[in-house]
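Incident log entry.

Two folding requests arrived from the same account within the same minute. Monitoring flagged them as a possible duplicate submission, but the sequences differ. Recording both here for audit purposes.

Request one:
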Amino acid sequence: MERHDERVGQQEPGLEDGLHQHAIIFGLGGASQRHQAGYAAGGYWGTPYTFRDVNGDGMINPDTASGEITVGSADVFQGSSVPTRGATISTELNLLSHFRLYGLLDGRWGNKLDNSTESFRCINPFLHCAGLNLNTASLSDQAAAIASAFYNLETGYFQDAGFVKLREVSLTYFAPAAWASRIGASSLNLTLTGRNLATWTKYKGADPSSIPSGSSTSASPIS
């Protein structure tokens, strides 16, 4: 079991150095992540919102006057951009004297990822995302799309990126010694292997294990 919890150090009283006086803001659009004292390094930050289907019609009205969506007034911490927990489990099973079955499960969790691809589809002038166009879209997907399209908020696309992946399954056949001796070998075995066979995750974007976490190309301090 792995555990990671990297936080930016607390500001030291009396220091005038700008590095200690300001958070560092960066990420998609220049404003989705921060190095903020007391919080996970590179964590996601965004303005929160709430939603509810007041009239029960299965649709979220984007007008705040409707009472179906309410937008906050300031950015708050949304979660770590890198996994804070992890575990790997493997096992072997010997069968019928000549076979060995091996399996490997790998998991990482405790973080979020920005599903920026879906968010990008929501912004003007595109408005092609599922939350704005599919009658079957859940209320939460509608609210995330509305927050992006109408209020320029990425917050609804900071999604739980925890996953468990079936990394490997292999079946090995150990041939009889007589087979190996025929080719001048002391032993002979054949292995059939499959890797990255399945992924279980709540993340709605691409495979979360293949996406670099907490990466950015620019950063600037803010008050």
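Request two (distinct sequence, not a duplicate):
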Amino acid sequence: MTSEYLSRPLRTVAQARAEIALAKRPRYISTKEAAVLLRKQLKVKWPAVKFSVRFESYSMGSHINVRWTDGPTQRDVEQLSDAYGGDRFDGMIDMQYASESWLLPDGSVAWAGTTGTEGSKGVVAASDSEPPCPGAARVRISGSRPSCSREISPAFEAKCLEEWNGLTPERQIELLREVHFPRWPEERPGYRYAIYMAEGSR
């Protein structure tokens, strides 16, 4: 046992540091893998809603498309899915930058951090976070943040039209002046109000 141990080649300090750095390097997750993880988490969060989760690859990258009808607001789904894409963009300097996420034991994903763009005169500050729970693994997810789109069914539109008609004229005018829809088509106020509610704006 002792002779076998002594016969092993000794590691240099540089080699040991390189091994530690390699162990700390985040694991790579493809956009396809991320889509599978996201689909599972959406089903856990909203089991009664049918989501379409597809990934697309193109010459300059990849991303996930999420589609569903009625159900949760677009803001809620965007909040859950945001960490399932590691490529971000700083429009102030027209530069793409990377972020990392935590892969939790239950398969969910949480924001981990980014090096930001301030070093390149951008506006995104560097950030980092501790593992949110034991067993969380740091990962680098390929692709930009998922694109989320909520469809509105005729039944939901009719329900929103009924609610719209029940609002006071003052409240209707207040909503008509919202930044989201400065000019609502008079023939479909229920549809516009449905979009307003679907975005989680109230």
